[in-house]
Each structure stands twice: as structure tokens, then as C-alpha cells.
């Protein structure tokens, strides 16, 4: 039996072996006293993290997102300690945990190369094994500045000088191995870190400013067990196999060129994929009462001042001049939608008004952040803006959640939800923000949807619900979003006439569920490893004649299958059947039909799928019937 003293000094008893989840459920915020917290730590095999100067503790596990963040944040300090031991003159900038590990930005004369990784990893494991305690130290600004000046750590000095005057300054000391300016939290000690792997080297401008020092950024990941590292390395091989850039080239979907860095070029096969996706999505939106609009790519600078983008987003925008006046290329579609709404007077009976736009936007991204279709400088958003009464907010959010569920389930994605609240850099009145957040929260809770709270990460004009998809490689992607906005209707003086003939302000909901269409295609490509469902696949059926003797038969089949509405081609090259099959597999064609003497005489086909499985003696009528059912149902499972 374990007795735990709660923050209110009451005592609760637990059987030995109690789970972390049960304890944290029973104890508000999962906080409890240090002395008994250590006992729970031993029983549950979680690890403890100091919360504040009173040394209250919280149990977290590596499997939890918060646990990974703490584990990897501590690991970034261990990596910095190892680098300091190997290259003592290193100047350290920042070293946060990220979604898949950690990094540290550094300035040093030595240029890192992959051959350095093994040496750094060895030193990291030595430091971790030494069981250094992570000691939290409060320090005055003067003491901190003096210490880092003596250490020659210029970047730490700049960070301290930029802190508010009343900011509490804390350090984390790793035994005698390393000390760093840090808010925490961290592991209790380094001994939990049993496996490390350094991944890549990159350049990063200090504070993202291209006029500042270029630093070296070293990425890594760490685990509690060597087995976890081995599993992660196997997953990386699978992720590499699914890389959409490689598959995009093999399937001739899209390309990138030096003449337009960050600007994707879609080829005919890629456009088939995009158009099939968007044609279906347009039909779904039309059924649900959306009208489609198209707004200009370039609008004058004054518009972006009025919308708030100039003050909150201009560093991500491109600009031009027309007739000696300043214009901007749109980074978002919402101001154009607002002008469309404002072009007519609306009654309360007209609301909600749902306007969809597949609008191309341009956003400036640093060259070092560009990554295939995942991070580009121009993309198409499946944007929509819904103008409604305050009383209609929850019902419209319900409809959007249902729409998201239809979209993601069609492709077999699992998803989770995240509610992001008011950021520091926000527009508008706090009362409007509080109401908006309450509405989104109520919509989720009344609908029985589980969600994570993400404080301070809302858009500058309103809180939002984000959809995080899980793909076949167990990675998560933020694609869809629902955002509630009171600011743009106010900035643009949007109105409707209520039942009393008075002008009132509508509420505006932003909604993008594919998000960036290009990015969604990249996610789909990696999710399916290029083996797209029949209905969107550019290469659906490939007919392979055994020799030119059977070319007429193959072309006759091609005509009939094409008339049934399928994308079909005949491989007429003077190559062997085995070669043609391999090429069709490389293109991820759904089905292959080999045509020879047997097929010509029997009028029956052998259908070969992408896995090499064959279904013999299939009539053309039966083939078309099954393919039609697979296509029309949008099944992710093959008919053959």
C-alpha cells in the first residue's frame, strides 16, 4: 500500500503497481509531494519532473507526448555537453525538443560532417551513463550575464538581455558536465537516456534572420532502450521507401526546378491525381450548400493593412508595384472572400452563407525549410468561409467536423483534434476571443470529441480546431483546420439585416480540410506509398501484349475499357513481358492484363494486381463491373 499526500494535505492510498494514469486522474494536474512522488516513480516506472521551486513533481512516461518532449529536451543538453567536451570553444544558441527528437544550434570553427556523429554519440552515452542530476537554479539577471560573459556565450547573453525586466531567470545544471539557460522541464537525471542517434546537419540563421550569423544545427533523437532505437531505425527505412519526392519522380507526378525553388511543377499524371481529388471534393461541397468563388491573386496593400496581415504576416508575403502603387500577392484567401460577401446586402434569412475557394496563395519560406510538397512557396488551399449568426456557430462547426470525418475516412486516415487558443500576438477584444473559444470548446465537447488543448497557438484573428492525421507509417500531419473569426467581419464592417431591420455583425468561420492541396497530395503519396486507390490513380490499367502479334487484341481491349470510363494504356514497347510488368509496377498501376494467344482465343483475361496476385479467366464484362464498383465506392481495397 502506498500513501500519497495531495496538494491539499489530504492522504490517498494506492495499491503497489498503481498506474500513472490512475494517479494523475485522481490528483489535480498530476501534482504531488516530492517524498512520496519518488515512491510512485519507483512503482509506476514513470519519471519525475520538478514543476517549481517547491520541488513538486509530476509523473510522465516516454510514451506520452509531454514525456517525449522532456526526454528529448534533456537529450539536447546532453548533446551540447558532449560537443562542449569535444570542442570546448563552441558557442551555444538554442536547443529545443521537436516532434521527432531535438536539435541544437551552435557556432564553432569545426564544420560538422557525418563522420563526427559516432564520436558525439559515444560521448553523449558516457555523459548519460554518469547519472548527472538535472539541477534547477534561479539566478539574478546580473549573475546570469556575468556567468555567460565569462563563458564567452554571446547568444545566451543576447537571450537574457531580451527577457522582460521582471522575468525569472533559471539555469539547468547537469552535474559538472554542462550548465544552460533554460526554463525546463527536464528529467531528474541523465541516466534514463540509453540510446542516441544523430540524424542530420543543417544551417540555420540566428533567430531566422538572414542578416545574422549562420549557425550549425545538429539534429538527433534518443530513447530509453536500444530496442526503441532499432525500431525507429526500421521505421526510417520505411519512411524513406515512402518518400513522396522519390515516388513523385518514379510516377511522373511532379518535379522541382532551380528556376523556381519551392514552386512545384505538376506533370500530366500529377494533374490527373489532383483533378480527381478536387472534382470529388467539389461535388461533396456542392451537396452541402457551398458556393464556389474565385478571387484575385494580387490585391492592393491597403487591403492587407485592413485585414491585419500587414502587421501580423508581412514577413511571409511577396510584394509588387502596379501603376506606381503597392500591391501584395495573397498569402491567404480570406480577404477576397470577405470582399465577395460585402458586395451584396444580406438578410439574417440568408445565413449561413458558405463560400468555397480553391485559391492559389504564395508565402515566403526560407530556402532551408523547403521540403518537397510539404513546404512550398505556392500552393492551392481548399479554403471556405462561412458567414453565420452567433446562434449558428456550433451547428456549422458540427457540419465541418462531419465533413472532415468524411474526407479523412475516405482515405483510411485516423485523426486527432487539437484546440488552439489566443496567442500573444492577437487582434481584437479579449471578450470576443473568450466567446469564440467557448463556442469551439462547447462544439467539441457536446459532440463527444476528444481533443488536446494547445494554449496560445491560435491564429492572430481567432481560435482554431486543428486535425492531425496519422498515416500508414504512424506519423502525424496537421492538415485540416476550423477557425472562428470575429476580427475580419469587424475590420471590413460586414453586416446583415436582422429580423428587426437593424444591421448586425456576422460571425466568420474559416475552414480548410485538405489544407494545402499540394501538401495533402504529398501526404497521400507517402500514406499509400504511391499505391493510390483506383479512383484517383493516374495509371489504372496497363495492357501488356506478349508480342506485336497481339497488339490489335490489346488495343481493342483498351478501347472498351476506356469507354467504360477508366484510364488505360497499352505498353507497345519492344521489350519483354517481365520488363513491362516491372515498369507497370514502378508506376503503381492498379491492374495489369497480359494478352497472349490464350487470352485471344478464350476471350478471358488474367488480372494481375500490384502485389503480383493473379485472378485467371475473368471476362471483360466482369472486369469492368468489378472495377466500376471499386472506383465508385472509392474503396482502398482492390477488387482483385
| Sheet with the most strands, sense and barrel status | 8 strands, mixed
**Rg from Cα:** 29 Å
Distance between the termini: 59 Å
Structural class: alpha+beta
Q: What's the rounded overall pLDDT mean?
A: 89
Number of distinct helices: 20
Note poorly predicted spans. Answer: 27-57
How are the strands ordered across the major sheet? 16-20-21-28-25-24-22-23
Assign a percent range to the helix content: 25-40%
Strand content: 25-35%
Principal-axes geometry comes out as globular
The counted number of beta strands is: 33
Short description:
The protein has 640 residues and is of the alpha+beta class. The chain is built from 20 helices and 33 strands.
Explained architecture:
- The chain is built from 20 helices and 33 strands.
- Strands 16-20-21-28-25-24-22-23 form an eight-stranded mixed β-sheet. Strands 6, 7, 8, 12 and 13 form a five-stranded antiparallel β-sheet that branches. A five-stranded mixed β-sheet has the order 30-29-31-32-33, with helices on both faces.
- The relative contact order is 0.07.
- With 640 residues, it is of the alpha+beta class.
Set out the fold topology:
Blueprint: E1 2-5, E2 11-14, H1 20-26, E3 31-32, H2 34-44, E4 47-50, E5 57-60, H3 65-86, E6 91-92, E7 97-98, E8 101-107, H4 117-129, E9 134-139, H5 141-151, H6 154-161, E10 169-174, E11 178-181, E12 195-205, E13 214-223, H7 226-241, H8 244-250, E14 254-255, E15 265-266, H9 268-287, E16 290-292, E17 298-300, H10 301-307, H11 309-313, E18 318-322, E19 325-329, H12 334-342, E20 353-362, E21 378-388, H13 393-410, E22 414-420, H14 430-446, E23 452-454, E24 464-470, E25 476-485, H15 487-491, E26 496-497, E27 503-504, E28 507-516, H16 517-527, E29 541-545, H17 551-563, E30 568-570, H18 577-586, E31 591-595, H19 597-602, E32 604-609, E33 614-619, H20 620-632
Parallel strand pairs: 16-20, 22-23, 29-30, 29-31
Antiparallel strand pairs: 1-2, 3-5, 4-5, 6-8, 7-8, 8-13, 9-10, 10-11, 12-13, 14-15, 17-19, 18-19, 20-21, 21-28, 22-24, 24-25, 25-28, 26-27, 31-32, 32-33
Helix pairs in contact: 3-4, 5-6, 8-16, 13-14
Amino acid at each position: 500500500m502506498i500513501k500519497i499526500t495531495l496538494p491539499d494535505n489530504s492522504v490517498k492510498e494506492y495499491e503497489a503497481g498503481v498506474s500513472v494514469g490512475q494517479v494523475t486522474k485522481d490528483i489535480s494536474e498530476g501534482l504531488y509531494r516530492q517524498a512520496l512522488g519518488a515512491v510512485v516513480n519507483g512503482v509506476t516506472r514513470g519519471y519525475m519532473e520538478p514543476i517549481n521551486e517547491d520541488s513538486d513533481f509530476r509523473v510522465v512516461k516516454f510514451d506520452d507526448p509531454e514525456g517525449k518532449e522532456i526526454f528529448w529536451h534533456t537529450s539536447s543538453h546532453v548533446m551540447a555537453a558532449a560537443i562542449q567536451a569535444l570542442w570546448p570553444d563552441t558557442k551555444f544558441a538554442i536547443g529545443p525538443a521537436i516532434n521527432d527528437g531535438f536539435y541544437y544550434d551552435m557556432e564553432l570553427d569545426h564544420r560538422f560532417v557525418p563522420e563526427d556523429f559516432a564520436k558525439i554519440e559515444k560521448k553523449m552515452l558516457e555523459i548519460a551513463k554518469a547519472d548527472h542530476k538535472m539541477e534547477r537554479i534561479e539566478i539574478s539577471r546580473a549573475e546570469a550575464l556575468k556567468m555567460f560573459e565569462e563563458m564567452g556565450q554571446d547568444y545566451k547573453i543576447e537571450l537574457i538581455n531580451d527577457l522582460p525586466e521582471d522575468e525569472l531567470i533559471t539555469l539547468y545544471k547537469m552535474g559538472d558536465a554542462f550548465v544552460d539557460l533554460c526554463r525546463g522541464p527536464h528529467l531528474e537525471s541523465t541516466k534514463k537516456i540509453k540510446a542516441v542517434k544523430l540524424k542530420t546537419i543543417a544551417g540555420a540563421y540566428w533567430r531566422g534572420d538572414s542578416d545574422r550569423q549562420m549557425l550549425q544545427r545538429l539534429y538527433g533523437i534518443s530513447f530509453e532502450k536500444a530496442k526503441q532505437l532499432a525500431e525507429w531505425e526500421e521505421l526510417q527505412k520505411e519512411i524513406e521507401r515512402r518518400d513522396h519526392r522519390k515516388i513523385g519522380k518514379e510516377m511522373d507526378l511532379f518535379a522541382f526546378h532551380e528556376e523556381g525553388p519551392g514552386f512545384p511543377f505538376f506533370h500530366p499524371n500529377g494533374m490527373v491525381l489532383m483533378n480527381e481529388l478536387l472534382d470529388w471534393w467539389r461535388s461533396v461541397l456542392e451537396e452541402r450548400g457551398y458556393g464556389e468563388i474565385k478571387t484575385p491573386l494580387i490585391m492592393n496593400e491597403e487591403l492587407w493593412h485592413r485585414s491585419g496581415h500587414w502587421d501580423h504576416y508581412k514577413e511571409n508575403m511577396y510584394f509588387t508595384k502596379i501603376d506606381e502603387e503597392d500591391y501584395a500577392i495573397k498569402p491567404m484567401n480570406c480577404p477576397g472572400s470577405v470582399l465577395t460577401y460585402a458586395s451584396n446586402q444580406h438578410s439574417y434569412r440568408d445565413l449561413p452563407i458558405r463560400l468555397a475557394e480553391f485559391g492559389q496563395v504564395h508565402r515566403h519560406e526560407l530556402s532551408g525549410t523547403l521540403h518537397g510538397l510539404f513546404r512550398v512557396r505556392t500552393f492551392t488551399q481548399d479554403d471556405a468561409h462561412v458567414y453565420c449568426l452567433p446562434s449558428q456557430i456550433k451547428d456549422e462547426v458540427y457540419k465541418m467536423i462531419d465533413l472532415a470525418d468524411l474526407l479523412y475516412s475516405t482515405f483510411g486516415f485516423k485523426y486527432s483534434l487539437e484546440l488552439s487558443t489566443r496567442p500573444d500576438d492577437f487582434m481584437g477584444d479579449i471578450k470576443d476571443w473568450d466567446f469564440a473559444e467557448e463556442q469551439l470548446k462547447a462544439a467539441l465537447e457536446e459532440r463527444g470529441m476528444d481533443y488536446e488543448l494547445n494554449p496560445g497557438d491560435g491564429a492572430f484573428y481567432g481560435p482554431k480546431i486543428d486535425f492531425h492525421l496519422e498515416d500508414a507509417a504512424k506519423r502525424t500531419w496537421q492538415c485540416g483546420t476550423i477557425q472562428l473569426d470575429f476580427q475580419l467581419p469587424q475590420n471590413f464592417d460586414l453586416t446583415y439585416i436582422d429580423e428587426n431591420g437593424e444591421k448586425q455583425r456576422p460571425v466568420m468561420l474559416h475552414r480548410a480540410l485538405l489544407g494545402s492541396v499540394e501538401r495533402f497530395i504529398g501526404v497521400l503519396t507517402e500514406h499509400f506509398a504511391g499505391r493510390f486507390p483506383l479512383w484517383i490513380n493516374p495509371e489504372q490499367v496497363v495492357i501488356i501484349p506478349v508480342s506485336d502479334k497481339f497488339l490489335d487484341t490489346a488495343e481493342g481491349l483498351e478501347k472498351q475499357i476506356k469507354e467504360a470510363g477508366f484510364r488505360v494504356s497499352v505498353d507497345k514497347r519492344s521489350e519483354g513481358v517481365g520488363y513491362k510488368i516491372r515498369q507497370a509496377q514502378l508506376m503503381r498501376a492498379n491492374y495489369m492484363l497480359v494478352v497472349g494467344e490464350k487470352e485471344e482465343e478464350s476471350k478471358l483475361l488474367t488480372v494481375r494486381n500490384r502485389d503480383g496476385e493473379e485472378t485467371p479467366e475473368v471476362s471483360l464484362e466482369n472486369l469492368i463491373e468489378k472495377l466500376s464498383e471499386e472506383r465508385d465506392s472509392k474503396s482502398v481495397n482492390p477488387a482483385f
